[in-house]
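S.,

Sequence below, as promised.
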Amino acid sequence: MQRRHERLLHFAVVGVLLVPLVGAAAGGLLDRLGANPVEQLTHVTGEWALRCLLLTLAVTPAKRLLGWPGLLRYRRSFGLLAYTYAVAHFSVYLVFDLGFDLGFLLEDVAERPYITVGFAAFLGMTPLAVTSTRSWQRRLGRRWQSLHRLSYVVGVLAIVHFWWLVKADELGPAVHAAALGLLLLARRLPARSGR
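The prediction came back faster than expected:
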């Protein structure tokens, strides 16, 4: 009974985190994304990719410092949600901005710094998503944990991408950067005693 309750709760949490993606897709289909729907889709998917990544990185500090081991079961889902949003973010750019032209993609990556770091963040997330299963954990052993520390590098790259993208309102990137800084600091703090 408890296991069923935990599964339902897990499903509900994932469902809530997918609401922005479903809402953006529905808004696009119904032509309700305002004057610049591509920009709106790009912002929604990019910001939620970063938020889900930060949620993923928050799981271990919450377990260590607050004594919430139950959160560990959500870490993989949060990470895969972050990658889902990142794939959607990249797809919007590739399809609507570039028209599937890979030549333009390579040109953008080479010439526009915010695209360069964003693309590097996306590439960095890909092996993390692929190796997120238990079978990959077993295969990689200790190397799995080392590989998944790359998520902090991805977080920094994603925030730089976000910061360089915005023209005037830097509050969003600043808040996300502060959150990542706190999570990095939390890694240095001693674990809660008795846990």
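The mean pLDDT is 91.

Coffee later?
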